[in-house]
Amino acid sequence: MKKLLIILGAVLVMLVFGVPVTTRILGPRLIYVSAPGGKPLGEVDAPRSETSLLAVSIGIELATLAALANEKVPPKFEGVEEKDFHKNLKGGSYAWKVARGPFAFQNHGSHLTFAAPIQGAAQFQGTLDAKIVQIPLNTTAEIAGIAGGTLSPSIAPDWSINPNLTPALNLSQASLSLGSLGKLDVSDILGSSVGQYIQQEAQKLAPALRQSIDLRSEVELLWREAYLSEQVNDSPNIWLSVTPREIQLSSIDYTNPEELTVTAAIKMDAFLTNREPGSPQPQPLPGLVAQPGPLSTDLKLPIIASITELNEVLAEENFEIDMGAGTSVEIDGLEAAVGQDGMLNLKLSLNASQSVLTRGIAGDIWLEARPVIDFEGQALGFTDVAFTLETKSKLTSVATWLLEELLIKAIEREMRVDLDDFKEELIEEIHQTIASAALPEDIKVSVDDLDIQLYDIYTITRPFPGAEESPGLVVVIRSTGNLATRFGQLDAVAPAPTKGP
Predict the structure, then answer these.
(1) Chunked in runs of 10, what are the mean pLDDT values of the chain (501 residues)?
(2) 350: which of 61, 261, 266, 458 lies 20 to 30 Å off by Cα?
(3) Peptide bond into 236 cis (omega under 30)
(4) 104-107 vs 89-100, strand pairing mode
(5) What residues does 184 pair with on adjacent strands?
């Protein structure tokens, strides 16, 4: 009995003292790592200026060109020539009258052609030498054919359109009877006379084109609108300032069979400032910089993301890492602070389960990591992840160090923060801006294939040049899309086709 009491007493002692000892030796090790020392220092002092291209595709409909041609080129024309049009003819002369139908334009992929049917008559007079007698001649030749030419527009240095117009005349009917001498083809004779007249009248299309389709005025409107000063934050006060620098112009594009297209692009700088720049003073439109290839919109907009805002997002993130060998690590409670030289210091609350190799760990540690954009996933990720010196000093056991490399690689792989809210807000703003833009009634603006992407991310020491130090992040948003304007139909109405002189 005494021996049994001794055994029970020993068991009781083990229960009273052994559980805390076992927990202390075999249970998770509780750790708390202090925040890294050192002064926060961004990758750059203040947000970088971003260079963008705002490209506007300006379309000129072929129907507009046709309306212009039908308005400016007379529907009827006539002329008189004093010329011997045959070797046996003396005192020859002829008078002609021609009416044209409506002009139509056609896109051939590298140039335009334009054409209108013509119809009329020519009255020929003279004295026909028949060797024995002199026979007075007074006869009529019917005229029919096509008047038109080619058009290969280009943009001149003064922003006007140079049509590079080459008129042409093709007569399908132009012959007259010379009695016993038979019929005479006068298409060459009339073609020369009528062709010169048509060429003279068609040249009126060039100044009309410059006057009616004023590319310079439209680009000047866009140039003035490109000067922007917009307050984007009020605590502290931050303005986004945009300054246009250069105008680029593409060559004429014939891809759309129904129109001509030329793309003008404004090259501009966007940066952040701590004071209102005041009303922008647009500079005169600079000279054109010709670009042989296509131009497209490529906007880059810097947005300051405060550490407070980032931590609100990080607080919602948690994930579990399977380390193998029966060990898993639960991570939550993420918190960020700007470190030094472009790094973020990241606080993690973790709970690492015990395995055959390691003792469990629970508590807070600090890592340092460089923020990067995961372009494929369009999310914030981290690279160059490493334990801070303060964390390493706490985690000195061999078992813990066995997990370090696996833990770091897993964090780089798993820790992603979705930043889609920035994109959605910016898309909405772009559409609202276009909808509220004050543009002339005959100019229609549209945006197609709008794409917003995260482009860059980096740390800063202060939010704008000259400001107090307030380390944070800058997220650069990149926007691409097809911004287009279209010149609508002109008020001119094509005259109805007229038959006969």
Answers:
(1) 46 40 53 84 91 85 86 85 69 83 93 91 77 71 88 80 83 74 75 80 72 76 82 78 89 90 88 74 84 84 83 82 72 89 90 64 88 86 88 66 70 77 64 55 59 88 86 87 61 33 32
(2) 458
(3) yes
(4) unpaired
(5) 176
